[in-house]
Amino acid sequence: MCKLVVIDDNPTDHYIMQRLLHNNYNCEQATYTFDGQLVLDYLNENKNTDTLPDVIFLDLDMPELTGWEFLDELESFNNGAKKNVQVHIMSSSIRSADVFHSKKYACVNSFMTKPLSRELINKVCEQASLSSQSAF
Q: Alpha-carbon distance 86 to 57, whole Å?
């Protein structure tokens, strides 16, 4: 079972993710936030515990801390953490430069264009669930 976090500044996208995750047996816990800094603070406070999320769904275009700034911080975090957190970028951007730029981050597993599908979310959760089980 995976634990995931959705970081997006749009409440409608939070609602859509909640609907897509409804009855997903691979997702143990989902947390939704508009503020990536809160997630970074949580990760740093809990870097050596088992409470870290398995997956983060990240929007890139946000007003306070952009997705790119979040990824820069997460790369540093993953270097010293007990567990590496996977990131799946979810963006309405169709700019190939964004996809190319995302590949420079080791923590980024995929770049998905909104709107996302239930099948895609289920696949990510299933893979994360299998990864977290094999870690034990």
A: 9
CATH of residue 35? 3.40.50.2300
Q: Residue 75 sits in which domain range?
A: 2-134
All residue ranges of the chain with pLDDT < 50 are 136
Task: Give the ranges where the chain is alpha helix by DSSP (H).
Answer: 11-21, 36-45, 67-80, 96-102, 118-134
> Residue 23, by phi and psi: left (phi above 0), alpha (psi -120 to 50) or beta?
left
Q: How many domains does the chain have?
A: 1
The whole-number pLDDT of residue 25 equals 81
Cis peptide before 115 (omega within 30 of 0): yes
* Closest C-alpha to 90, from 26, 14, 21: 14
Separation between Cα atoms, residue 51 and residue 114, nearest integer Å: 28
Residues 6+ apart with CB under 8 A from 15: none
List residues bridging with 4 in a β-sheet: 30, 55
Contacts of 63 (CB under 8 A, 6+ apart): 9
